[in-house]
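ugh ok so i messed up the first submission bc i forgot one of the chains. this is the corrected input, ALL of the components this time, i swear. 921 residues overall. if the numbers dont match what u have on ur side tell me asap before i send this to the collaborators (the ones from the other lab, u know who)
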Amino acid sequence: MTAQTDTNTGQGETAEPDERLSYRGPIHRLLTRPEIGALIGTAGIWVFFWAVSDVFGTVAGTNNVLDVASVLGIMAIAVAMLMVGGEFDLSSGAMIGASGMLVVLLAKEAGEFGGAGFPLFVGIPITFAFAMGIGWANGSLVEKTALPSFIVTLGTFFVLKGAKLGFAKLFTDKVIVEGLDAAPDFEFWDNIFGAEWTRNNQIWDSFLGGRDLVYAVLLLLGGAAIVIGLMEQTFKRRDGLEPSGLTLALIGASGATAGIIALAATDGVGANWLWSIVLGIAIIVALIGFGRWRYEPAVRAEKSTTVQPTVMARNVGLGLGAIVLGVGAGLALDSESQTEVGFLLTVQGLRAVLFVGLAVTGLVLLILAARHAKQSPIVQAGITALAAVLLIVLAFIVQSEASSRKFRAEFFAWLLVAGLALLSVAILRLLFTERRHIDQSADRLGRRASIIGMALVGLGVVVRLLFTTSGEVVPGIVTYRISVFYFVTFAGVATWVLLRTQFGSWTFAVGGNKSAARQVGVPAARTKTILFMVVSGAAWLGGMLTAFRLNSVQANVGDGQEFLFIIAAVVGGTLLTGGYGSTVGAAIGALIMAMSFQGIPFSGWNSDWRFLFLGVILLLSVLVNNWVRKKAEGSS
Amino acid sequence: MSGPALLELDSISKHYGNIIALTGVTTLVNAGEVTCVLGDNGAGKSTFIKIIAGAHQQSGGVMKVEGEQVLFDSPRDALGKGIATVYQDLAVVPLMSVWRNFFLGQEPTKGWGPFRRVDREKASQIAKDEMAKMGIDIRDTEQAVGTLSGGERQSVAIARAAYFGAKVLILDEPTSALGVRQSGVVLRYIIEARNRGLGVIFITHNPNHAYPVGDRFLILNRGRSMGNFAKEDITRDELIMMMSGGAELEALTKELEAASGGDESIARVAEEFADELEERTETPD
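and heres the new structure output, hopefully the right one now
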């Protein structure tokens, strides 16, 4: 049976080999990105801690995670760039403390215990020059001697570590230097490196209809743009537009708008129900209309191809079974019981684990079954739709059974959205022809629409995180530090540099094949030296942020963190061997680490476990990265 | 083709201290012709190309580019005169995309100041067109070069050199690591490059690859030129004989016979070897 199907696909491929090879859909291309493992990991870990802990996922919890992630992320991004360039910098951690300490020592009043008494206008540029000097020295030494950067920067690490301790003792007789705020122009610089944003003071009630409306509109526009982007990249454009489709799309869109307005206006449960259904149907109608307007309808030349019934049926059966078992476990076990069943797990916890685990397994099996049914679009769409319906059913079971509001409301909503998305995928793939070749204008439009969509969604989340409404109740005061801003900005700039500029190209080249790069005229030594300077520059920024946060710097700040930066980069998909990697991935890697560092204490576990967790994440992410990349490249 | 040859070498020699790596090598490269440099390991092929590529300077002899006498200080110098070298394993960065490889070091940019960025669309389009001129249809220039076949990888480097204004293209053992089919692919690109008017120097130790594409053959053995022939003056078998050195082959046969002792299998090999040698030496005359 398997052999027969194999020959079938073989024939299909030889018939139109070029088309098969030439175009990879948006999902497929996403899977070959270096960041994909980290992205999946982020989603998984986020959901995990969100489900387990009360604080995680709230604004305050997010702030905590971002706070930890920021300096880590700034460093991880720089380190990832250097690793793409094929080198390591083990002095990056110690450099944070060194620049922080230097700025304090330069600014401190000259007194009994050391201090140069410089204004910060002098001290900060000196510190920056010092950091650049260390980076330049690292780079030049590595390039001149051709020694492994591992050894050279290990040397720098010990030099910095020793110097920090030695000078701290010498000048202050302590292992901590204090008194940054005594500098005359401290206020000015504190606004740059130590600024804070207190969310509770930022009430946004009326302007443009209030924060919540702006948030919702941004989210919807972003979502629509992403959907359009994905459709543009997935389906084949038809010759000439079909106006009736546009009409249908507009009807759907207005229906959806009405549904949303009605949902926002009514809080009555009955109306909610009705309008949710209206909304769901309207969205699907809009999608179908949009598709009719722009894309080639599917041609159903029903081939008498054999699906792999055994594998498919087995997966469908197993999937359904798993879901039924999961629901059964959810219904059977007592949701209130706190009795322990072992391994720190209460009956309540066991119920959650069983339910979630089995339900997810079931859905994954169903989707796998749908993939097996590639030969017959109708069967495939049927199975996908079945999975979607089951997802929606699960959503309602969760809503009726879950004890916390978080699950009943937010989780319920997300499950519904996921079910709706899956259902739309099933319907759209059945109705329209998928593109099998490159269409530059469609690709460009699709890419831009997706990017704009993601930016809009991101902006929406930022708006929600930064502002509050007078109606919103958030326990505690949420204060963001400016380090988060630097983190996000640096991630954006570094990504642009790496992917869009000549320097970025050279970075990939010197890491991938240095002699080839040199051969075609890339200044390899200069590129690498600049990369080392980027890392020490990032460490300088980290040092400033640390110093201005605490007004004092301990001699051991940053020591040993260099490995955390490398781990974050690797979790983000950067290869240890150089030539491949991503700064966005490194930023996500830093987020993952911060989430696990914060999520574990949030969940009430001893924070010592975090290193175990970190190790497992590191291994898993590397495995996932490897596996996904091989699979994606192998099948392309 | 009137006027001076693209590249002319007269009695080039190279000494490393008291070691004579190359002596009295003479050949020329015309536009639209392939000059093959043949020789076994240690024949002086790499010294020869390093001189032309500007990595080393000759100790004696005259090198002329388009009639003008030159002495290169660096590979950049040679590149400036339009002499580009494609090294077998140093040609490309496997993890980078085709268009990035194509334009590496000379990326077209747009925008100004801090917003200066690589013009991806232009680069991608040019790379695609140039590869198409070589007869390769790159479907997606975002594809990593590592996913191309060995022959196609070489051709990326060849197309790149041609695009950036090379007049003389030195190919260092482009077929040595490739299988039969892939070697064929590369040989086709050599012909494509020749047809576009480039002078090609094709270095190889495989006369079977050299003979079909070459217009001129320079045979090196132990640092000496064994001759510099136009295609009409030499047959394939003569080429093979000259390349390996007939006298040496005979010596090798004797050695094999002596070594065989009682071992029948080695004796058989020696016999076959001798037969073949005989055949070869007979046919040319």
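quick check: Residues 7-95+153-243 of chain B form a domain with the Rossmann fold fold (CATH 3.40.50.300). that seems consistent at least. The CA atoms of residues 218 and 231 of chain B lie 11 Å apart.
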